[in-house]
Design goal:
By secondary structure, the chain is mainly alpha-helical. It is 74% helix and 5% strand. The chain contains 7 helices and 2 strands, in the order αααβααβαα. The chain has helices spanning 2-28, 43-62, 71-122, 134-139, 143-156, 170-191, 195-209, and strands spanning 125-129, 159-163. Strands 1-2 form a two-stranded parallel sheet. Helix 3 runs parallel beside helix 6 (170-191). The radius of gyration is 28 Å and the shape is elongated. The N and C termini lie far apart (80 Å). The model has no long low-confidence stretch (mean pLDDT 85).
Length: 212
């Protein structure tokens, strides 16, 4: 009996941990599960509050008379039942969230493919990047002039780089990589092998003219 209870409790703990991490994974799909996604100040507190509530509820319900069963037996029974219900509800909610995120991501992938095909037809591939161009402000003069010359150069290779500002998130990063995969062979066919290296050298020549 003791061994059975211990195994049941161990199984519940494992399922609780799995449901907790599945909830985090589904909320951040398609990002891979990693420590930085877990908010220990929020997610863990919510999880612990739920466990404490289940524990207190089990204590209260175990006090209800039930077929002359001992208090310890009733507490363990209600603790397992309530936790099982909590796990099922959590898995159902996380699964719904997962499929919603998955469908949204697949829709975005389709839009990226359509954008890539449209840009290839227009002979101008648009690469988006995030963050500022502060390096120009610190090391070079006439920032606007440099940007204009670089844009003119990259367009001869069928490419333009557009600054979206701010920080990049996981979804945007994955979509950018997929866009690059779609357009990579097109640009290599258009510009020849090692075109990125050639373009980079020409960009460095332009930048060297404007060094402070």
């Amino acid at each position: 009996m003791v061994l059975r209870r211990a195994l049941s409790l161990l199984l519940i703990i494992i399922l609780l941990i799995l449901s907790y991490f599945f909830n985090i994974y589904s909320a951040n799909y398609p990002a891979k599960l990693r420590p930085s996604l877990i908010s220990f100040d929020f997610d863990m507190k919510i999880f612990l509050y739920c466990l404490i509530t289940i524990f207190l509820l089990s204590i209260f319900m175990a006090a209800i008379p039930f077929r002359n069963k001992k208090y310890g037996y009733k507490f363990f029974l209600f603790f397992i039942i309530i936790n099982s219900v909590f796990i099922i509800i959590n898995f159902i909610g996380s699964s719904k969230q997962y499929f919603e995120k998955k469908n949204e991501y697949e829709y975005l992938l389709l839009k990226v493919k359509q954008r890539a095909e449209s840009d290839m037809n227009k002979d101008l591939i648009k690469y988006y990047y995030f963050g500022g161009d502060s390096i120009f402000d610190n090391l070079y003069k006439d920032h606007k002039k440099i940007s204009k010359e670089i844009d003119s150069l990259t367009k001869t290779y069928g490419v333009i780089y557009i600054n979206k500002g701010g920080a990049i998130d996981d979804i945007s990063n994955k979509l950018n990589k997929r866009y690059e995969e779609y357009t990579e062979s097109f640009l290599e066919k258009r510009n020849g092998k090692n075109w990125k290296y050639k373009m980079k050298k020409e960009i460095e020549l332009i930048k060297s003219k404007y060094k402070k």
